[in-house]
Amino acid sequence: MQGIELSVSQALLRETAIELQSLVHILNGEQPTLLPEKYRLKIVDGTCLTATDHRLDAIRAFAAKALPGKALVVLDPLSKLVTDIFPCADGHAQERCLFNEVLETVQPNDVWNGDRNFCTAKFLFTIARKKAFFLVRQHGALGWKPLTELQHIGEINTGKIFEQEVEISYEGRGMRVRRVLLKLFQSTRDLEWEIAILTNLPIADASALTVGLVYRNRWSLETLFQTVTDNFNGEIHTLAYPKAALFSFSMALVAYNILATLRAALGSVHGVGKIEAGLSDFYLVDEIQGTYRGMMIAIPSPHWESLRTISLTQMALLLQHLAAQVNLKRFLKTPRCPKKKREPLIVDRKHRHVSTARLLEAHQTTRKNQ
After folding, report:
1. Are 81 and 261 within 8 A, CB to CB?
2. Which of 95, 150, 201, 217: disulfide with 46, CB 3.0–4.6 Å?
3. Cα 136 to chain center, whole Å?
């Protein structure tokens, strides 16, 4: 697997995503969008593969964690499919070293949604020059000049929305953009109370409230990374070679895309909103893993050959026929109860062990007395 070039891992994901994207469109299983249809929203984010075991001679003598690589991933929020990946074998490199590769794929009317790591003058100006659009969280290092005062626009469920026009510069050129400021009702995990978003989307197509809601959906890519790690074993600790680890991660993303397509098929029959809100990825993956081996024994491989020749339309009809027979109650998410505040633990250095039976007896006696 170390011999698999990074371009192969990238092409594997790209080519399979194109067909699955067409299939989701035929199924009519796409998610609702907040932007006009002429725009293609793309959520981009980076991930660093988890440290591997020290199996190679080159890293065996080091106590530090060995990182096999990182990647920038692009998500299409309409189909919920990962459409592109930009792998990097150097796990210690900055994600910005991959920006030029990302910019080569920018097409007119794309809307690139990213965190503040993507807020560089070159990145924003190049997107605008290609007649595309950006919706990126402002980085503190990016210089800007206010052109208008902040105006209160309204509220969303996470905070108050303000807006103003600002100017940013790159290589002697200036560009007027909108700066949307979200003042949060509750701080982030980094104890931040404000989130500023820069965009060149026209206000007629995306109001400040819409910009805030679209940016908030960027977290769906973070959720995707968690799903791939938990359900598809996308980061295998024993794969220490960078190309092998990145190929495994790309395969996990392809598996996730297949799962997203199955969810789209279920959504086309039972309702997209219902599937998105209530269906558990864990239970779906567990069902497939549990029945696959037995299914391949009961139905030998020659019986599956006919699926290679059917059209995407025929495949969509087959998936919808099967989706109508699924008992959704078996795959619903388990609602999480509110966490109770835990009392501090009792520490007694004179007694390193306790008797469960004695503590149960004492606890039951206390409850009876109350």
Report:
1. yes
2. 95
3. 16
